[in-house]
Design goal:
With 97 residues, this protein is mainly alpha-helical. 56% of the residues lie in helices and 8% in strands. Strands 1-2 form a two-stranded antiparallel ribbon.
Length: 97
């Protein structure tokens, strides 16, 4: 087996990580999470209530979005990152120039 590359699951890891990122972003956009935050709903309770969902699942989604840097967290409040505020809030015009 000399001269052969070691086989690793790295490609599988990269694909599953990419899927996790996509699914997290997709869920947040579908729920209009970034829009709710832009409207002033910033705590887990306010966001869950505004979206009509339970607090525990939305807390997991919020923290995943923080890890991906789509959201920022300060104390108990969440806010949109610059990129989320600019491109993921419903009704915002995207300027491609």
């Amino acid at each position: 087996m000399e001269g052969k590359d070691k086989i690793t699951p790295e490609k599988i890891r990269k694909i599953t990580h990419g899927m996790w990122i996509f699914r997290t972003l997709h869920a947040a956009v579908e729920l209009e999470l970034f829009t709710k935050i832009a409207e002033g709903k910033t705590t887990i309770n306010e966001i869950a209530e505004g979206l009509g969902v339970k607090e525990r699942p939305i807390e997991k989604l919020l923290n995943a979005c923080v890890a991906l840097e789509f959201l920022v967290k300060e104390g108990e409040s969440y806010g949109n990152s610059q990129v989320a505020g600019e491109f993921l809030v419903k009704g915002k015009k995207i300027n491609n120039s």
